[in-house]
Amino acid sequence: MNYRQLGRIKTLEFFAWAGMQMGFQFDDCVFEYMADFLGAVEKGRVKDAHRPFTTLVPNVSADSDAVQPAVAVFWAVHEMGLLPSTFVIKQLISELCQLGKMEEAVKLLKLVEGRKQSCVEEGYSIVIQALCEHRLVEEASHLFGRMLSQGMKPKLVICNSVISMLCKLGNLDDAKRVFEIMNKKRFLPDNFTYSALILTYGEARNWEDVYCLLIEMLGLGLSPHFHTYSLVDKFLKDNAKLDLLFKLERKLDSQILQKLCKAGELGAAYEKLKSMLENGFYPPVYVKDAFEHAFKKSGKLKMARELLEKIENDCKPDETEIKSSE
């Protein structure tokens, strides 16, 4: 534990001598220190009420030789029936992935799978993301499926990595399948998820799915990027679907108005609703209520009254229609 004071040579000599005396029957703590000592170049504070210490962790960057001693210690520890801490395992997996040593990383992950549950889920996330970056489809898909089959819930960034990889490779059916799995297991998608799918469906000239995905995206309160929205807008115009374009514009305007009200940007919200009404767009009831509530909360309901009354008057059923229906 005092290797910084002893120096490298004396520390190794002491470890070798003590190991010979004890038949190398050290506990996990000693092996963690040796793994850190052999493979480390960066400090990181680890707080523990029982045994506080500063641990050294591998940070090898492009130097593949630097991590090998730490990996060798890991396998030596494993052969003795021991495993280092969760922190050390995750760090080794991460460094192996950064160096592109994917087979080693997967091998290490599978080895600890049944013994160190505290690091398995994060270990899967690290490896799957790296596999996606290297576009190793079969390996990434296999681990993703294995993760789901064991009841683990992948983080959104992992689902997005898999979908993005499949989209970039043109595997639209598989990307759609992953998206359906997300919906089935209630993994809430984000802007990145929808944008990747919309752009890929766009390349396939599938305007129906592109439109449905954007409507679904808006329904979740997500705002599309300009390029994403422009792509859908162009598809609808090219296919003469002006009714759907009108519906899309109305939904997007309602979402923008609601967000302005929520953010307290009342001046912009007023101008937005005024513009919508001038173009014959009437927001849904829940958006109108949000608009009214925001102005009422700020003591500026009088300012909004004119627009609210216009909505009420324009949307009020005609008396002759009421009589005829009776």
From TrEMBL:
The keyword Repeat is assigned to this record: yes
Ranges for the PPR repeats: 120-154, 155-189, 190-224
Keywords recorded for this protein, A-Z: Repeat
Matching Pfam families: PPR, PPR_2
Classification via InterPro entries: PPR_rpt, TPR-like_helical_dom_sf
Range of residues in the leader sequence: none
Keyword Repeat: yes
Stated family: Belongs to the PPR family. P subfamily.
Full protein name: Pentatricopeptide repeat-containing protein
